[in-house]
Amino acid sequence: MSKKIAILPGDGIGPEIVAEAVKVLNCLQSEFGFEVELNEALVGGAGYDAAGDPLPEATLQLCRDSDAVLLGAVGGPQYEALPREKRPEKGLLGLRSNLELFSNLRPAILYPQLADASTLKPEVVSGLDLMIVRELTGGIYFGQPRGIRTLENGEQQGYNTLVYAEHEIERIAHSAFKIAMKRDKRVCSVDKANVLEVSELWREVMERVAKEYPEVELSHMYVDNASMQLVKEPKQFDVMVTKNMFGDILSDTAAMLTGSIGMLPSASLNAEGFGMYEPIHGSAPDIAGQGVANPLATILSVAMMLRYTLDEVALADRIEVAVGEVLDQGLRTLDIASEGCQQVNCAEMGDAVVAALSVKA
Ligand code: IPM
Ligand code: MG
To answer: C-alpha angle 86/89/94, rounded to 5°?
Structure first.
């Protein structure tokens, strides 16, 4: 049966990189008999421009009616002055919360061909294979109350609330332990339990859930130390699990270990395994429209979609191998350019992946 995929290009470089991922999906269809129906919709600034809403109802409905969602990126400087409710980011956060995509998987894998592209020494990062499991629908991103209020003395005060209920911690803990069971069976839970009550409960629940996974070794680390360890000795980690905001920050750091944020895909899953897939980099307005963005994170997001939601593991493997091959051929987009390699643009990189895939059909 044909799979329905909602395609949400979004803003900035979103449309350029998603176009390359769509080429890959079309190739799977024409060469490997993977039946897929692609339906495009607007989100973020594009949704606001067309419909006055960063998450138009039709877009949300399309996602609900699909087997999976592929998203490019949202945001741009032209939207920064809008009221918070209308900003592009609200579209992304609305998708995450409405679709209950609480489990965000952000793998940081270093392709050996890119060991020189990292700003860290090759021996620190080579062989890196780390999975960050970020809680995505709770914490300070969504906690109430929130706002900006005026105090009695007339001064303004901004406030947000960091809250986690036990069930929210439990389910992200299960996600992390289940993933660890398929990897090196080590989970490091990152928190700020020396200061925050929320983190104290987080630790307690992690310990409790860990008992259901006796083969997995659980450790705890404060977030400040974790950020330091990530750049000092990143290979000590297998799976890291953490709150929404800490995960946001640590995953950008982890991305840079791999040479470029342009290489990293992500999956955001609900309890049933339905998911939204997107590169972890943003809309990169500075290079949007120039055709120089790196489409590999988005193409690798398609691989994650095949692996985690669509149960097409063999096709996922093929895409990942094809990406390795184009890197072996020495093809590099601007962000990962290095001496002796051939610089290509976004579309050329997409075409090269398709060509590498087609050879195997
Ligand atoms: C991410 C992004 C988003 C986040 C922004 C665009 C709202 O930085 O996916 O990491 O903070 O979650
Ligand atoms: Mg982020």
So the answer is: 85
* Residue 250, in any domain of the structure: no
- Peptide linkage before 214 cis (omega within 30 of 0): no
Q: Whose alpha carbon is nearest atom 12 of ligand 1?
A: 248
CB 136 within 8 A of CB 297: no
What is the Cα–Cα distance from 194 to 201, expressed in whole angstroms?
A: 12
Question: Is 49 one of the catalytic residues?
Answer: no
How many distinct structural domains can be found in the chain?
2
163 and 228 fall within a common domain: yes
Same domain, 116 and 86: no
Cα–ligand 2 centroid distance for 253 (angstroms): 10
What are 167-195's pLDDT values in tens digits?
Answer: 999 999 999 999 999 999 999 999 999 99
Does residue 31 lie in a domain region?
Answer: yes
CATH of the domain at 93: 3.40.718.10
SS3 339: coil
Please check whether residues 26 and 136 belong to one and the same domain: no
Q: Which of 65, 224, 311, 317 is catalytic?
A: 224
Does any domain span residue 261? Answer: no
Confirm whether 286 is a catalytic residue.
no
Ligand 1, atom 6, lies closest to the CA of 89
Residue from 11, 79, 87, 92 to probe ligand 1 pocket by mutation (most atoms less than 8 Å from CB): 92
What confidence tier does 87 reach under pLDDT thresholds 50, 70, 90? very high
In a domain, 33, yes or no: yes
Q: How far is CA 347 from the centre of its chain?
A: 22
Residue 267, ligand 1, Cβ within 6 A: no
Is residue 213 part of the annotated active site? The answer reads: no
Q: Is the CB of 254 under 6 A from ligand 1?
A: no
Question: Rounded distance, CA 290 to CA 346, Å?
Answer: 9
Q: Are residues 95 and 173 in the same domain?
A: no
| Catalytic-residue membership of 141 | yes
220 and 166, same structural domain? yes
pLDDT (tens digit per residue) in 269-318: 999 999 999 999 999 999 999 999 999 999 999 999 999 999 999 999 99
